[in-house]
TrEMBL record:
DNA repair found in the keyword field: no
InterPro entries for the chain: Inosine/uridine_hydrolase_dom, IUNH, Ribo_hydro-like
Pfam families reported in the protein's UniProt record: IU_nuc_hydro
UniProt keyword annotations, A-Z: Glycosidase, Hydrolase
Molecular function per GO: purine nucleosidase activity
Annotated CDD domains: nuc_hydro_CaPnhB (cd02650)
Domain spans labelled Inosine/uridine-preferring nucleoside hydrolase: 5-298
Domain of life, source organism: Bacteria
Native species: Shouchella xiaoxiensis
The protein's name: Purine nucleosidase
EC numbers: 3.2.2.1
Length: 310
């Protein structure tokens, strides 16, 4: 079975990504690490434990960085709600505890335990992986694939005019990851995730279950907000698409491009630069996703998300 390790800042779409990864029985979820991002580290961890409890999977959940490498946290409560899940599960005390440890160390230990077998799916700011690389520079040789949700190659940002949120929150960490020399590093950015839209009718089509009730509740808030900005009442499945791509790479076509991230600009911090014509003459380092098989993705997402759910 393909071994996945998720790194999340559990917000609404991270939660849907966790449900997807946990419910796809073709993969083994070897752990989930949490990071500050949409919400605080503590809240992201609580949300992760509560969402995982909606599935049959009991993977370890390990906490990581409480702030970006150099910058102050930048929560996204306007999009994800006060608790990060649009109010869903707000009163639930997690039935499980986080596993003791620190996410960067856990990433290193799982990579060492399964050398060449692990796929990392990163759906928050890249702080934990950057810290792991600082501690263990040979980490790229131990990891099979890294897929991150973040960046925008040929489209506008979603937190500033040019930057995507995960890159914007910790661009210094993103640069460490981009320059680490991973054999296979894929960017699932806004170019494709804005095409991965979940509508209310999709949710209504699910069979009744606690998972359906959860998805209905947590996406309602997000859809209202997305409509204000984008004119469409939908939930962009940013993070679930990164999970889906890690399991089914045929869903996106990618182009191998030298990719960097801006860290010293008043207007463009966090912007990803994907060098299409190799103007910089640098080695290509990232498989940048450019197309999406939208129907195939949505049907995979909707059929898988309920398997094994409580
Ligand atoms: C990304 O930002 C976060 O708010 C979402 O959870 C997703 O990971 C989209 O830009
Ligand atoms: Ca996220």
């Amino acid at each position: 079975k393909q071994k996945l390790l998720l790194d999340v800042d559990t917000g609404i779409d991270d939660a849907l990504g966790i449900l997807l990864a946990a419910n796809d029985s073709s993969t083994e979820l070897v752990g989930i690490t949490t990071v500050n991002g949409n919400v605080s580290l503590k809240q992201a961890t609580t949300n992760t434990l509560n969402v995982l409890a909606l599935t049959d999977v009991r993977a370890p959940v390990v906490q990581g960085a409480a702030s970006p490498l150099l910058r102050a946290p930048h929560f996204e409560k306007a999009v994800h709600g006060e608790n990060g899940l649009g109010g869903a599960l707000a009163d639930s005390e997690p039935a499980m505890l986080p596993t003791p440890g620190f996410a960067p160390d856990f990433i290193i230990s799982q990579a060492s335990r399964f050398p060449g077998e692990l796929t990392l799916v990163m759906t928050g700011p890249l702080t934990n992986l950057a810290l792991a690389l600082q501690k263990c520079p040979e980490l790229p040789r131990l990891i099979q694939n890294v897929v991150y949700m973040g960046g925008a190659a040929f489209t506008y940002g979603n937190i500033t005019p040019t930057a995507e949120y995960n890159m914007f929150v910790d661009p210094e960490a993103a640069r460490i990851v981009l320059q680490a020399g991973f054999e296979s590093l894929t960017q699932i950015g806004l170019d494709v995730t804005r095409k991965a839209l979940l509508y209310k009718e999709h949710i209504d089509s699910l069979g009744d279950s606690p998972v359906k009730a959860f998805i209905q509740e947590c996406t309602a808030h997000y859809m209202t907000r997305y409509e204000m900005r984008n004119g469409i009442a939908a939930c962009a499945l940013h993070d679930p698409l990164a999970v889906a791509y890690a399991i089914r790479p045929e869903l996106c076509e990618t182009s191998l491009l030298h990719t960097d991230v801006e860290t010293t600009s008043r207007l463009c911090d966090g912007q990803t630069i994907c060098d299409v014509q190799n103007r910089l003459g640098e080695e290509p380092n990232v498989h940048v996703a450019l197309t999406l098989e939208t129907d195939a993705f949505l049907s995979y997402f909707l059929t898988t998300i309920q398997h094994g759910s409580r």
